[in-house]
Amino acid sequence: MTVAFGAPLPATTPTAEVRIALMTIGAEAAALRRGPRDVLGREFIKAAKRRFGSFCMADAGTPPMSFGRALTAALLLSQWMRRALPSQPRIGVLLPSSVGGALANLATALAGRTSVNLNFTAGREAMQAAPPSFRKIDATHPRDGPRTGQP
Along the 151 residues of the chain, how does pLDDT read in single tens digits? Predict the structure, then answer.
């Protein structure tokens, strides 16, 4: 548990400013707790090694997945991301909250990239409004998707 204190605020401080002050203190406290090597991908790998065969995640459309299977899937997807998107520091993820979405976010972290979760419910109009530099890749399409060893 971490307890952090900030500068006192007057009782008349607007709620929005109090909220910003609390978020700032929270971010500073979290930064003090975390080392430079404590990143999502590395932490998941450590957890998966300890619990390789244990339950990790599931959703209504996916059978339960162990830490080992989740790690394997995320590593394979991260390798594909590195090859398919070599110069992209940020990768948009357009998936619902699901095992697939979790694996895509984990793979993005393992690829050393930043995931940008896009609103799955926004629809085609929102996607068409994206800037022209926004590269759209359909990972389920044979042209774009992860390779399975076939030429």
Answer: 778 888 899 999 999 999 999 999 988 887 777 666 678 889 999 999 999 999 999 999 889 999 999 999 999 999 999 998 888 888 888 778 889 989 999 999 999 998 888 777 777 776 777 666 665 555 554 555 554 333 3
Domain residue spans of the chain: 40-128
**Where would I find the H helices in 85-144?**
99-110, 124-128
Reduce the DSSP state of residue 148 to 3 states and report it.
Answer: coil
| 40-128 has CATH 3.40.50.1820 classification | no
Indicate the angle between helix axes 99-110 and 40-50, nearest 10 degrees: 110
